[in-house]
Automatic annotation (TrEMBL):
This is Molecular chaperone Tir. SUPFAM superfamilies: Hypothetical protein MTH538. InterPro entries: ThsB__TIR-like_domain, ThsB_TIR-like_sf. Gene3D superfamilies: Hypothetical protein MTH538.
Length: 145
């Protein structure tokens, strides 16, 4: 009888803070944290990072890109919030245009309250569900290798 061995992977994720609305980032982290079947590390850029005090948009972009560089996938919530204006385009350009990282869009609310630009650039769109999100991460990372 052959033995099967499960390979344990740690996923490096950039989880966007561009939608840091009502602690959505913490809620998303809590959604997937503590699962025995999923190990991950985040390389996200906190909204409290000192780069946010700098007026230069290029510095913010470079900081986002440098965080994303080491990630297997990027996760962005599809919500439409005013804070998108400073971050979201930089994250999308770094993710898709420069680093060619898989992008997972997460819909927390119904589609009438979601960002078209995020959904348009996403490799996959999932609803707010731990199993769906984890499966999407595993799928896009395996497809990127």
């Amino acid at each position: 009888m052959p033995l099967t061995e499960e390979i344990h992977l740690r996923y490096n994720l950039y989880i966007s803070h561009s939608w840091n609305h009502n602690d959505a980032h913490k809620d998303l982290d809590s959604l997937i944290k503590g699962r025995n079947d999923f190990d991950y590390r985040t390389y996200s850029l906190s909204p409290h990072h000192p780069v946010n005090q700098i007026k230069g948009e290029r510095k913010l972009y470079e900081t986002i890109k440098n965080k994303m560089k080491f990630c297997d996938a990027v996760i962005i919530l599809c919500g439409v919030y005013p804070t998108y204006s400073r971050w979201i385009n930089k994250e999308l350009i770094a993710c898709k245009d420069e680093l060619n990282k898989p992008l997972i869009a997460v819909q927390r609310f119904d589609s009438s309250h979601t960002s078209f630009i995020v959904k348009d650039r996403a490799d996959v769109i999932v609803d707010w569900n731990a199993d769906n999100l984890i499966n999407a991460i595993k799928r896009v990372v395996a497809g990127a290798k």
